[in-house]
Amino acid sequence: MPPRQFDGRRLRAARRAKELSQKDVGAAVGVKAPAVSRWEDNQEFPKGEKLPALAKAVGEQLDDLFPNDGPADLQLLRCDAGLSITQAAEVIKASRVPVSNAEGGRRRLNDAYVQPLAQAYGVTEDELLAAQEVSFGLSPEGSTGPAAPRTVGEKINYLVEHVYVGQEAPSDEEIARLVNEHSGTAVTADEIVALRAGATTEASEAVRAGLAHAFQVPVRIFQDDSELGLDDRRLLDSVVFLSSISRGQILGLAARGNGEGLSFEMIAKINEVVGELRYKLPEAPDGT
Known about the structure:
Elements lengths: L7 H10 L4 H8 L3 H8 L10 H7 L4 H4 L8 H7 L4 H7 L5 H7 L7 H11 L3 H11 L16 H12 L8 H12 L5 H9 L7 H11 L4 H4 L6 H17 L5 H5 L7 H16 L9
Helix pairs in contact: 2-3, 9-10, 11-13, 12-13, 12-14, 16-18
């Protein structure tokens, strides 16, 4: 998810209330007027670290203009400090990797990075560490939610149970068929059941590649038995949601409705998911 909710219509209304031009707002955050126009039309989304400057430019409180639901994670702290991942990496005199890994729930920050980042983000070390736990899928109080999937079977279960929202998940027989078609193996439905039940955890590279094909996910998801990080879980949700749009499963709702097309809520959801993927892309040369 983007660190804060973004709705270009709210930005446009706030800008007009202050009688500012798109050029004025763009100059305040380091982009050209066309970028602001695309943001206001919800065609594109600003990087999270630009939101504080945007709120200030139009004279609004950050929490009012761009609300945040839920506890702060590391990405939110960084973005609220107005820092890109590259700038955060400069604070700790390292590459982008430690910051990116911690925000994505893959590897916690080295102890030596905690104090300088907390200072740069304008929070205490305890607040930074609490946000790190949130980035790893833990509640601020430290209680855990569902365990992150690790084994092949756990990852299959996660995909079947959590990703196929509004769709029929494939059966064990269908999974086996797709694996065999792709990899030339002879996996049976009973073997898929055994993996999912934890009766066996062994799977060849060919089977793992076939599973990635069956679920239309990156091969790295099944490549080893490392924990499926929060970043990968978010990416899976986004990819499957967007694939449902391409198959007409979302757009088809309009034909079964009252003829007025997609609701604002559905459009907002689509924009939210597209925006999430955009936040995972490298920064554009113009900083938008």
